[in-house]
């Protein structure tokens, strides 16, 4: 987070609260989220990313992707900062409802939404449902008919882009479960079907999301270009000018010094210019009067807003040197959490760093591996890090960049209760998601 510093005793301090105090008050492991950092990243997308779009399409709607991390308090921060919210299940929508999030600023995703989820969304009056299959078109039409409403829908288009990221988090190549294929003509068919049911379905626009943790903007460019092509085709073929277009999320963050992400301002500049150029090219050739107007653009960043705002605070339990042969050693530093609170290292080979947080040390740095307390050897939090060789039981370590897809992908593996989320701001800390208890773990057991 932006407000991290070391105090005079070498303790890490965030939002004006030092980690030793945090550990004493709330225990470890704990996710510590810097409220101001979260809010300022949200504002950077809302203002800096959006500014270059003003002259092109009047601005941008930023849908914070709640799958990255959502709880009632965070949903309220998102609402207060004037952003919209992307939810991907009835559960995420329930959090939004509990927070009183304005319904018209919610977009609902999912490749297999249940009838109950569609009912929940239309009952609440969400601003858009992003349609992902032909069955879903029928389901939404049925529920809308039953409720006597016209459902606002967008079509998720598989644009056929190979995003340069881990294969599990790339989503716009052909051979995967999301969306309607553009190359295969499915997207066009879906649009036809929706327009046939325009009594109960309101076609708002096209949507594409190419993947996550992406740095190379060329993927976004190809995707936007294809989406714009389809948008124009719909205008020409059906005379329908869809008012919105969503370019998805996926902006990468720096987990280690290896990456330097573009700022929201620079991203916005590049994307706005591309949208402007594509529409100008489309309209340049046409007769005056049948111009394709530029739809309102929206995006769905999750990681880029919440990822850097949080670090996980752990306490060191055991320290073990392992002989690798040829005189080489590796130090295994075990902490009081692991793959249950951060599965990303095990699942995606994700790179994290970490630092000794509770004190300063002049000791020699030693190549270490930070591991959890779960019973598998793949339970690694930080693969390689130089930690001082006097690190010992009771020290605190902080792993930065754990705001996105850590708590939200967490589990109770080995019946380890999940850590709390503690928000810090202006010298004060408060729990926004409490720590699980053993009673919570047992609460669902019947018998
Ligand atoms: N929109 C849609 C339709 C999405 O599927 C996603 C992410 C986003 C937006 C937000 O993407 P972001 O801006 O956060 O990259 N668990 C994986 C990431 C899965 C992403 C799923 N969809 C990870 O830990 O890296």
UniProtKB/TrEMBL annotation:
Its EC number is 4.1.1.20. The keyword DNA-binding does not apply. GO terms for biological process: lysine biosynthetic process via diaminopimelate. Residues 43-306 form the Orn/DAP/Arg decarboxylase 2 N-terminal domain. CDD domains: PLPDE_III_DapDC. The keyword Thylakoid does not apply. Coiled coil: none annotated. The modification N6-(pyridoxal phosphate)lysine is found at residue 67. Pyridoxal 5'-phosphate binds at residues 250, 300-303, 405. Its cofactor is pyridoxal 5'-phosphate. It catalyses: meso-2,6-diaminopimelate + H(+) = L-lysine + CO2. It comes from the Bacteria. GO terms for molecular function: diaminopimelate decarboxylase activity; pyridoxal phosphate binding. The active site is at residue 375. Residues 309-403 form the Orn/DAP/Arg decarboxylase 2 C-terminal domain. Substrate binds at residues 303, 344, 348, 376, 405. Keywords: Amino-acid biosynthesis, Decarboxylase, Lyase, Lysine biosynthesis, Pyridoxal phosphate. Pathway: Amino-acid biosynthesis; L-lysine biosynthesis via DAP pathway; L-lysine from DL-2,6-diaminopimelate: step 1/1. Specifically catalyzes the decarboxylation of meso-diaminopimelate (meso-DAP) to L-lysine. Homodimer. Belongs to the Orn/Lys/Arg decarboxylase class-II family. LysA subfamily. This is Diaminopimelate decarboxylase. It comes from Pedococcus cremeus.
